Automatic annotation (TrEMBL):
Keywords: Membrane, Transmembrane, Transmembrane beta strand. It is found in: Membrane. Residues 344-642 form the Bacterial surface antigen (D15) domain. It comes from Mesorhizobium metallidurans STM 2683. This is Surface antigen (D15). The lineage of its organism: Bacteria, Pseudomonadati, Pseudomonadota, Alphaproteobacteria, Hyphomicrobiales. It holds the Pfam family Omp85. InterPro entries: Bac_surfAg_D15, D15-like.
Amino acid sequence: MLVRKRQMSGGGASLRGLSRTLLFALICSAALLAEGRNATAFELFGIKLWGSSSDEDADIVDPLRYAVTIDAPDADKDLVKKLENASTLKNDEELPVSGSLGLLAKARSDREQLVAALYADARYEGVVTITIEGKPLDELPPDAEFSGPQPIPVVIGIATGPKFTLGNIRLKGDAAGLASADFGLIAGGDAGSGAVLKAEASIVRALKAEGRPLAKVTGQEIVADHATSTLDVTLTVAAGPVAGYGDTTVEGTEKVDRDFTEYMTGLKRGRQYSPDEIDEARDRLLGLEVFNSVTLKEADSLNGDGNIPIGVQVSERKPRYFGVGGTFSNTEGLGLEGYWGHRNLFGRAEKLRIDGAISGIGSNSLTELNYNAGIMFEKPGVVGPASKFFANVKTVLEHPDAYDHFSVKGSTGLSYELDKKQTVSAEVALDYSKIRDAFGKHTYLIASIPLQYVYDNRDSRLNPTRGFRVLAYAEPSYDILNGAAFLKLKGEGSAYQSLDTASKFVLAERVAIGSIVGAGLQDVPADRRFYSGGGGSVRGYAYQGIGPKDIDGQPIGGLSFFETSVEMRIAITDTIGVVPFVDAGTVSTKSFPDFADMKVGAGVGLRYITPFGPLRIDAALPLNRGPDDPRFGIYAGIGQAF
């Protein structure tokens, strides 16, 4: 029987020593930066750590500072917040302007933006007045000079007036047969300028969906009745003829093949025009990851064949990229990774990525750290714009509590987008591995055919607030060296529901289940069995710490598992959030999960929202802790937990 050293469940001396070393290095680095660049302000994630505002003034000619007061006595808290967000004077208050002329220009622009914000809230009688040093903006000469003590006082007075509602609604022209209520235009309803513009766009979109690319609003009559505080809206729309796609022309390509870019739009000449297909073409080009921006625009008129030409304007990204990342847990230690990639290897958005990672730092001894490295190649559009060919080779050397594992795995396959939300993939894989676990030492050569289906309609992959994702996975496998055959099945779903219009409260739920059939536990390689516990599954427990164990208390994995998680993602500010959560999971040696042996963990997390995804730190407690389970778990990484 194999006897293995256990991981330190509470973060042992080596981990604490490492943490102190990293903290000391960070402090020393900060001190060196500060010493070498005394006049430089330093910011981390928008938080100024040192430096003064004089650094900002140095780049501005004749810097002039001001202080803003917004006085809107009739506005409720929500409207005041909208007005503050619309005011560049308020948002840029900590930044100086370029002299008196700069302050005047900013104030005039601000007044227009604030009036627009009032209109967006259906306040069509709203009045905005701005005074600088007590003088009304309209009474100041164009060359006014503000020579008083800084900051210069600026007062924005806002009389909001009553909130208007919609009155008479009339659709004319080719929209005469449409019901205005279908587009949000209802008598007594929202009369905000944004609601009216949204309705216009929806009406035009509905006509374009009939294959009419030239549909447009040709007349707009909007009358505010101040006596009744209602807004009468009359829209005249011309649908234009039904048309197919004409030529697709591409501009802006440099290193990406122009003909390939046109091909990847998938817009076939003569096929009936569809705005949904235009959106899908744009998303597909952006999904190639070789373009910073993609714009598709219909021509102003049809060509001689009665079709609509499509213009594509792109701007390219730098082809090469690299990066580093890391994760941390008191039960799993520190993990570091690095990668290098090329987005456009041969000019047709072929991707090459090389990556490597090391983990278990501080949790495992130096001789039992975990390593993995891989190289991946991907080529889009091999059997149509919606297809993608991929191939990769990966090597792994890892030492979790359950086993020691070395493997080299190669695979190749094809994925295909059935539509914008559905993707299927199939691959062929060959995996050579050597494993030492509770059942002894084994050598495997596994041939498998992984098959996968994904449905994903989430509004964001980095930080979803609504929608759901479903994954179904099947992998028939055959051990060439030992003659065992088995089928691995897995299903996973996650759902997201915003509980308020601003998405400050988002309920997130996840459930996953898996089963291996056709072989006994000892015939299935240890790395292919199911495990649970840790930052990616049930927080509060050690990595792979849930489920059956050998006589030494080490996990042996199982033939089935079940996991579920519930989170309430609460936005405190635009960038900071807290996340209370509950996780549960079980692993069984049978091919069906044993729900009577569920392990439950609960805790709270902190999120910091960045453009590349949330930074995450979670702390959790095991609610039905066993003798070998840690007292708590702390996990840090990038991205939401699921």
